[in-house]
Amino acid sequence: MFGYGRSNFTWNGTLRELEASSQASCEGRGRSNMSAAAANSSSGLEVLLSTLQNAGDIESTLNILNVLDELLSAGSDRRIHYMITKGGSQALLAALVKTARCLNPNYTVLVPLLHLLAKLGCRDRRIGVKAEDADAVLLTLNLLKQTATHTRISAACLMVIQVYCSSVTAANLLGEHRGLDAIYRLIPPHTSRHLTPIKAAIDALAALLCTKANVRTAVSKGYVSGLLTLYQDWHSRDVGHVAVRIRLALLRCLHQVAHSTAGREAVLAHGGIHLLFQTTQACRFSQGTESLVEPSVQLMRMCHPKTPLPLRSDHSAYSFPLPGREDTGARSNPAVALGSTAESGEEESEDEDNEDESQESESKDFDDDLETDLNKLRSRPEPDRPREQLAQYSQFCLELTHDFQELESGSESEESSSSSSTALYSSSSSSDEEAFLRSCSPPPPYLRRDGRKMDREGADSPSSSSKERTPYERGPDGEETGGEKVDERVREREREKERREEEHQSSLVDRLLASHGARVLHHDPQLYRAAAALTRSIPGFSILAFPDFWGHLPPPGLEPMAPRRPTVQRQKVLEDIQRLFDDDIINQVVFDLEDTGPQCINDQPDTLRFFSKFECGNLRKAVQVRRYEYDLILNADANCSINTQWFYFEVSNMVADIPYRFNVINCEKTNSQFNYGMQPVLYSVREALDGRPHWVRTGTEICYFRNHFCPAHGRRGQTFYTLTFTVTFKHKEDVCYLAYHYPYTYSALQSHLQVLERSVDPAKVFFRQQTLCSSLAGNSCPLVTITACPASRGWRDMHQLRNRPCLVLTARVHPSESNASWVMRGTLGFLCSRDPVAQSLREAFVFKIIPMLNPDGVINGTHRCALNGEDLNRQWSKPSPVLSPTIYHAKGLLYYLNSIGRTPLVFCDYHGHSRKKNVFLYGCSVKETLWQSGSAVDTVGLKEDPGYRTIPKTLDRIAPAFSFNSCNYLVEKSRSATARVVVWREMGVLRSYTMESTYNGCDQGIYKGLQTGTRELEEMGVKFCHSLLSLRRDESALYSKTLINHIHLDSNVLDHKSHQ
Fold first, then answer.
1. Which residues pair with 602 in a beta bridge?
2. CA distance 991 to 955
3. Which of 921, 919, 961, 969 lies closest to 944 in space, CA to CA?
4. What is the per-residue burial (b if ≥16 Cβ within 10 Å, else e) of 860-886?
5. d(Cα 669, Cα 689) in Å, to the nearest integer?
6. What is the reported pLDDT for 715?
7. Cross-strand bridge partners of residue 723
8. 23, 77, 515, 698: most buried, per Cβ within 10 A?
């Protein structure tokens, strides 16, 4: 409260006095009747405001101002907003105009009036407009010019001008009448006096700079350079850190300037980034100036010049000619041309990526995205194809027609599976397989990429060849993947040389398996190599990644989430900004996926070597920035120029115990679990050969932030993000692999299905692997049927088999969601096991499983799309049989099951989620969608089967990684073409789900604070199977003691429940 006028009073008492004096004053003017009526019918606040506008003496005005100030100071914001609704702003503005227009303004009244107006204006969003209407904007500016030498009055005027600038038109009006000049002149160089009015002047200037017009004026008049000079002066002379708030206010001014392109260019042109970097370095280590660091860093990031990615094109290095379209691969860049076994895959993630958009926009637009049309929610659309076309899918329901006479010999399953594989890959020749024999021998340890052997310490073996070679130039068939045509004789010599090298490498592989084979009993490298030889890729991969060839075992213990220092992101950003000034920046390309010539080989002795041209691999370019720092650029999805997040590459030639920093600089998601404890994964070849074949979490100083890079060409407004992490390798000249998450290749799936088929007893388990269809590139999309064989061929047993409900499970529609494949691996392995629960499930259900809906995308290391450049999980409404064959035929199979009265009891699509922790389900519910959207439809009268919650509730009790609280059952408009919604709406499957598995870990239960590994992901696949017991028709099976013991319902597991 301001101490003008009477010094001691209470506002209630003063209010009563003012009412009486107001009535007396009005009577003296001949308006007693009107004022009396107002006093009787209006509140006390309205009387005060009315009196303030009509008060004729200074004493009454000061009393009213004191009362209003005490009223607003003692209460909360509710009092301020109440006063605004009663016209408080207009009353104060009217009083200001009336007082200031006097021939000799009374500053004793003006100062408290201005202070009160500033306090009220901070909460009134329309104060600028109201000031314009009252002609108070220019009046206040003129008042400031007249009283510039009076610090108290000018400070009050500046505070009011600041609140006026909430209106763009008011701010522009002030700028047009030289308001910037008047205020800028009030900001002096460093001084220890009058800090409050100086700060008010800087704050008012910052408010004026909220408009582009004023920023242009400030730039043209050199005020940006002046502000930088002022900031440097105040920084260097404020030794005692007394004026930190002045420096903060100057930074706010520069922030406002940097919101426009002209302002950023001016800051950069006048050395602003260099100045801010130097001052920030000084402030980082002083406790008193810590508050200056963050705004300085943010300002430098805003003004950092945009740097195009060092790429020839924004388009993917891989392209694939789509049927019925012009050849998308016909580009001048030879690296883009297809190999003879070319193909690509790229697709997008269903509820993962789109359900994963930034949390701010999600919370803002979520309710608007919900489907509110009851007819759309309840109606079932017509099928997208004639019923006659569904008969072709009867071949995938062999359990309905098979007579089981051949089960005892088990010959039929082998013949059918081998015939389907032969039909699909009839075009593959034995030369393909021979080419992959050499590819499975990886460079690491004991064999460098140049073909020379080395001993355990990394030294060259005396018998090694001195001539270098690159094994990455040719596809499996020996033809060039790109470049100009070579003379036939030269090519013949090269082929002969390659054949000799293949024989040499094959012998090395055999010796490697002979000496270390006992350590990979969990995995059959030869089987994997045979499967990989038949896999078709766009570039014609001829090298196997060692982890995929050799195999992986989960590490012995659980891995905690990585701790993160609060200032690590700031430190990394400053290191990136420092590149503008440092002279030790190397900027040398050490790997380029598009460069197929010999020059792409990195021979520098102290430089890391990179490689990614293998199945699931993704690394387009590596640039050495500093001695131990590398920028990594990921390859976009094939046939497009977007979707970069997944990475998987080989790195070698490292020095032990040296921290290497890796920066993935073209990520696209706005946030990531890498900011919340997630780490990438690493596989060491030397560790694997020593008996520890583990993918392990690795990396320190991990953070994920927006950077200054932009696309190489076009796409204005595109923003990239950096994932940075530091890795310290344990072994010298080891060969390691780094990946976004635990890789799971298409070839791994194919070999695993063969292992499963060999492992089951054909007399007890009906296991059939068939080819649902071929992908665009010609890769098989496997369909697996699992159920129990009937006890006999009697009518009762056969009838029970023919009437078992179907459950349909799918996975990996988005290539980068490798965690979904690990969950599916757990499901497949369990259903084929001898576990009593698995046997019970096989006897109760028929499982139709499509474990990889997007084989092309997985093979070619894409993040989100298929070869058609589209997200396959947005194609379910009307999939194209030509461009989206896997989705088209998966939906056709579901249509067929529905048409013969075998609508699936459960449909679940396995996915991965990059921005949330735990594992959870998305389902579909009419009532919950309408209720959440605030629809006017009365949901009380709607009847809906609550059975869609059965599986989530069961999982919440038995699965440690599962979170019931993260589940939702809402139908969004943007998800209308996803598998979950289409199967629910068109096929009438009540329990239609998307199961999302985190890339990171859990924040609840027994796994709280731990990152998930492949063991936990496979366990989730097993637990999902356990939850299906709740759907058995024979309810007594739920209470079988034997089954309960095998589900392990112990107290420790139950403690994880998400509601605890």
1. none
2. 14
3. 969
4. bbbbbbbbbbbbbbbbbbebeeebbbb
5. 36
6. 67
7. 664, 704
8. 698
Which amino acid is residue 580, in one-letter code? L
d(CA 47, CA 42) in angstroms, rounded, equals 7
Cα–Cα dist 269/266, whole Å = 5
1026: tokens are: 């356990």
d(CA 799, CA 792): 11
Amino acid at 569: Q
How far lies 16's CA from each of 9, 43, 195, 600, in Å?
12, 12, 40, 90
Round to whole Å and give the CA distance between 283 and 291. Answer: 9
Is the Cα torsion angle 639, 641, 647, 652 positive or negative in sign? positive
Identify the sign of the CA torsion 991, 993, 998, 999.
Answer: positive
- On whether the CB atoms of residues 265 and 306 are closer than 8 A, the answer is no
Q: What is the pLDDT of residues 626-667, one digit of tens each?
A: 999 999 999 999 999 999 999 999 999 999 999 999 999 999
3-state SS of 868-929 is CCCCHHHCCCCCCCCCCHHHHHHHHHHHHHHHCCCCCCEEEEEEEECCCCCEEEECCCHHHH
How many angstroms separate the CA atoms of 832 and 757, rounded? Answer: 8
Characterize the bridge pairing of strands 906-913 and 806-811: parallel
Pairing of strands 588-592, 621-626: antiparallel
Which H or E run includes 1056?
none
Q: Which of 559, 612, 878, 898 is nearest to 739 (CA)?
A: 612
Under 8 Å between Cβ of 537 and 342: yes
Pairing of strands 709-710, 307-308: parallel
1036 CB-contact burial (10 Å; exposed 0-12 / middle 13-18 / buried 19+) = exposed
Q: What does the alpha-carbon distance between residue 759 and residue 723 come to, in Å, rounded to a whole number?
A: 42
Q: Side-chain half-sphere of 991: how many Cα atoms within 13 Å?
A: 23
pTM for this entry: 0.82
From residue 891, alpha-carbon distances to 38, 870, 896 in Å are 74, 17, 9
Query: Residue ranges of the alpha helices (H) in 101-239?
Result: 107-121, 127-133, 137-146, 151-164, 168-176, 179-184, 195-208, 212-220, 223-237
CB 662 within 8 A of CB 610: no
Query: H-type helices in 770-884, by residue range?
Result: 795-802, 818-831, 836-844, 855-859
Q: pLDDT of 500-537, one tens digit each?
A: 666 655 666 777 777 776 566 667 898 999 999 999 99
> In the structure encoding, which two tokens stand for residue 52, read together?
């303030």
Residue at token pair 């073996």 = 461
Q: Cα separation of 1004 and 946, whole Å? A: 26
Question: By three-state DSSP, how is residue 756 classified?
Answer: helix
Kindly report the length of the chain. 1060
Query: H or E stretch including 431?
Result: helix 430-439
Cβ atoms of 343 and 537 within 8 Å: the answer is: yes
Q: Check: CB of residue 189 under 8 Å from CB of residue 146.
A: no
- Measured between alpha carbons, how far apart are the two ends of the chain, in Å? 49
The span from the CA of 701 to the CA of 695, in Å, is: 20
- Integer Cα distance of 8 and 623 in angstroms: 74
Question: Which among 347, 498, 817, 996 is annotated as catalytic?
Answer: 996
Asked if 482 contacts 334 with a C-beta cutoff of 8 angstroms, the reply is yes
Considering only CA atoms, which of 284, 306, 304 is closest in space to residue 294?
Answer: 284
Which residues, 6+ apart, have CB-to-CB distance to 493 below 8 Å? none
- Phi-psi label, residue 844: left if phi above 0, alpha if psi -120 to 50, beta otherwise: alpha
Dmax over CA atoms of the chain, in Å, equals 119
Q: Token match 């995938």: residue?
A: 396
- Is residue 480 among the annotated active site residues? no
Both tokens of 621, joined, read: 């370019």
Q: Is the pLDDT of residue 1008 over 90?
A: yes
Q: Are 435 and 503 in contact (CB under 8 A)?
A: no
CB count within 10 Å of CB 754 equals 18
Q: Examine the pLDDT at 7 and tell me if it is beyond 60.
A: no
Give Cβ neighbours of residue 970 (< 8 Å, ≥ 6 apart).
Answer: 370, 924, 925, 928, 929, 932
